[in-house]
User: Fold this.
Amino acid sequence: MLPDGGATAAHSFAERPACRPVEGFLGEGMAMTTGSGGAPSGARARVLDAVRAAVRREPAEAEAEAAARREEIEARIAAHEVHVRPSVEGDLAMRFAEKVTLVSASFAPVPGIDGVSRAVANYLEEHGLEKEIVVTTDPLVERVRWSNEFAVARRAAEPEDRVSVTGAYAGIAETGTVVFVSDRTTPTTLNFLPETHVAVLARDRLVAHLEDVWARLREERAAPPRTVNFITGPSRTGDIELQLELGAHGPRRLHVLLVDA
Amino acid sequence: MIPESHRFPDRAGLALADEGLRLALDRARQGFIGNRRKAVDALPEFQELREAARRVKNHTLANLDLYLERFESQATAAGGQVHWAADAAEARARILAICREAGARTVTKGKSMVGEEVGLNEALEEADLEVVETDLGEYIIQLAGETPSHIVAPAIHKTREQIRDLFAEHHAPLGLGAPGLGNAELVARAREVLRREFLRADVGITGANFLIAESGSTVIVTNEGNGDLSNTLPRVHVVIAGIEKVLPGFEDLSTVLRLLARSATGQEMSVYTTVSTGPRRGEDLDGPEEFHVVLVDNGRSAMLGGEFREMLRCIRCGACLNHCPVYHAVGGHAYGWVYTGPMGSVLTPLIVGLDKAHHLPNACTLNGRCEQVCPMSIPLPTMLRKLRTRGFERGFGTRTSRMGLAAWGFLARRPAVYGSATRVAMGILGWLGRRRGAFRRLPLAGGWTGVRDLPAPEGETFQRAWRRRGARR
Assistant:
């Protein structure tokens, strides 16, 4: 283990067990720097030595200088400095609705959580789809009282599933992107396997920019989840004669319900 | 794959005679250039973002050793395993070992350029693993036994008829007949067949558009969702990535993402941007049980330490290809290896050796468009010129062209001799060509006159005409 170079660290690394998810991925320092994959015959050392040789300003960078550089990069990471953001003006929901439609997804505002069941039923009827749905069990979707016309399953996706209804972590007005995180209540496969994906997004989870999502994640999660999906419209491909076709591998349809929860 | 770049002139000749390819390339040029233009015009902050991205990447590259170590420590802390490979052979061996340890028989792959670069598929197949490319374009060229002809649209050179025939042939053993010719039917067929593969694969291999040092995460950007199914469904997820892919944190990622999709396809965001950190967590309902990242050098540390460091800023968007007149004339396959167009003409000589690829830096008109559209402001024309110089110094090229260059070098350094020599030459050429105004043939200019006439000079040099004009003014 290398000495903790980060003078910026709020608490020292020695207090933290090395090989488990780092608390707060703000990352105040280096957890461990030994090779972990059992690389053959020192590939790690050879690559890193070559990189070190390539970036050194002096032939032999003193350990003090390396430590100073390390401190600098730790401080830079910890600062989470935002660079340039496109302007997002006006009402976030309006902008989000406009952008989400432009990427071939559809959008419906729902006045309260009680309206979600009806809104999903309407959407499925409109597209001639069965009311067999697989849903996530996150706090928002758990609050939905599904009318008895629905057959509802709560689990990860299976190959035959046609429709999923999943709780979104956030929505980004800048680009009409819906964000999903994986945990025990929100399996990732529900975002990809079914042909029709209905996202339930609470209005207070709308943010202006991409950067706002990272800020929320750092605030709300001890460690980054296994998967964060930024989804901007339904799956598509242009690989055959550059003609756009929806539903390449992921959902053909993405419908976003913006709920005043 | 074995580089065929030394055969560029022959391959370019064949490509120029291919009418189907011409149609495909025209379609691509119009589509990609127009879409990018619209997306860039719609974002007033684009230039500012470009500058910010350049700064971010320069800083990261200047401290790449530390960022790689930090990436490794964070990925490991999240339960992932990080492996290192100094060259292509080590990368192949490492991934093969991971597949063997996992007892794998089938592998699904998301698109990975570095995977192509190290010849991963061939190595896995030789070891009797079944490897299925899942990006639709990559899948099509895998069936055809070809290599990508475009970095974003790998099967851009294939017509729908050819794709239908490939599907008919390869899907017959699955009990499926020939699909219809419609776009929707072809895509639906690929979806159906590849869905089966995802569900039975033991290992999913993806590339990484970015690695995040802050959290030890890998990031992939796709439109189809194939990368995500490869990420999520198989028991083992392996990421193969070049060491230059690392970025410090998520704010840096945000900046570069705003440039990537706009430059590649004209989208504001690609459909799926996915951040993976470690394997599935204890209570997760899905996700891989193992998460491996293989960091590949293969010539990159050498670039980092030399005059081509800036090439490591490349984010593989393909904008330089789309705006390159040479790429548009000959297509991707003429370049003879994985990377094509202007970025390929820099990367290929640096990775496989200038001796095997010295033609590529010469396949450039130095018009500069690639640099203008590069979201990471890579000075591609300057680099190509440097590679030409190196090639000349090392004695590559035909004897005639080398003698010509030497003669030119002699004249260009002696202005007086240059002036009188060109005056004489232009005078003679002007007189010889005075009747037709053009030449059908000219000694030493066969490369030009073989396919078109060479306009005859008017008989006076530019310098003389300029002086005369200046005197009159």
